[in-house]
Amino acid sequence: MAKDTKVNLRSLNFYQVFLRQHTQEGTFLSLIKDLPRIKTLGMDVLYLLPIHPIGEKHRKGSVGSPYSIKDYYAVNPDFGTEADFKTLIDAAHQEGLKVMIDVVFNHTSHDAILLEQHPEWYYRKDGKLAGKVGDWWDITDLDFSHKDLWEYLIGALKKWSKLGVDGYRCDVASVVPQAFWLQARKEIKEINPDTIWLAESIHGEFCKYIRDMGFESMSDSETYEAFDILYDYDIHHDFLHYVEGKAPLNDWLKAMLRQEYTFPKNYIKLRNLENHDQERIAHWVKDHVRLLNITGLLFFLKGATLIYAGQEYGVDHKPDLFEVDKVDLSIKHIDIRNLIHRMSHLKKDSLFQVGVYHIHLQTKEAAVISYENKNSMTVGVFNVGNAKGEVTVNIPNGTYQNILYPNQVIVKDGKLILEDKPIVLFTIKQSI
């Protein structure tokens, strides 16, 4: 972990927006009208996919990937002007939302302004521009052995921080040198000491692949030294195997238990069921009751939480990265939206930041998780498998109010009967 990371970041709720797909206009100004709804959902951070101009040379699709960036110092004219972006930032701040942007420093487009100005700052293979990953043919990699490149990229971060940006989601951060990120963090801290640093850390298999080719790639532990929050791609295959029906729930839960002794005590993982690179959770989980429960479980996991726009309405189509493909934000599955609202506000309790965290493995396809301190305890029960019967819980016998729904739950002999909907119970330990 970065030495100055604050564990209260575990209570942050991120709302990811692919601006091209989010509104009919696909502009900064058109997003403003949706900010109150996003805030009411319980979100804290508006996270925007890259806002910069997209390269045209070797472009994928008709409009290109936002991760093929032409100019780090400019905004995509399709989104509006820099003044429009500033207006969006100010409006978000007025709603109580922080603004995070995606920064992509591993590579640029093949027609980037930087390539025209400093071709010597690029990685080459056999004398030709190249990338380390073969299928990323729309981009070309930077060479971080040039310290002037560091100054140029950090200068871009300084510009956006001075404009009001509150945080950075750093694309494939693990393959960019740790020393660069440490320097960037140090210099940006002078502008905004509360800047949030989120790393798109990478799957372990991908890390080994990069290293086996002779390149540098940081482990999660190394990446944590410069960042506040990391993706949970270290256990993503366990999650996918579960939702794809290839492995039991407890394999995924046990993987999360390993994180508890693999990383520093104050580690923060970004918990998400979907994002712009991954299939929608509603694509994998078709049953509505299961979807409701796994959504509740998401917010009960230790760490910050990310919702990809549309997830709150059970959208099952992942927007195309290279074409115009609007997200259906019409109001449906309102019970998922309402659950996210309740859980996102519930997560502000300090128990979720500093409480002792336990995952109680069950013999049924249900997740039981608890947090406790010397005064209080909360227990969440999530019937992600539509299971029947009882699960064990670590609270005394008695009748408890489910704070998510207007029903009471009876605990007898350390067990409770599973219900269709998620259950969250609170108790004061002095009364036990």
Automatic annotation (TrEMBL):
GO terms for molecular function: hydrolase activity. It comes from the Bacteria. This is Alpha-amylase family glycosyl hydrolase. Residues 16-341 form the Glycosyl hydrolase family 13 catalytic domain. Keywords: Hydrolase. Pfam families: Alpha-amylase, Bac_A_amyl_C.
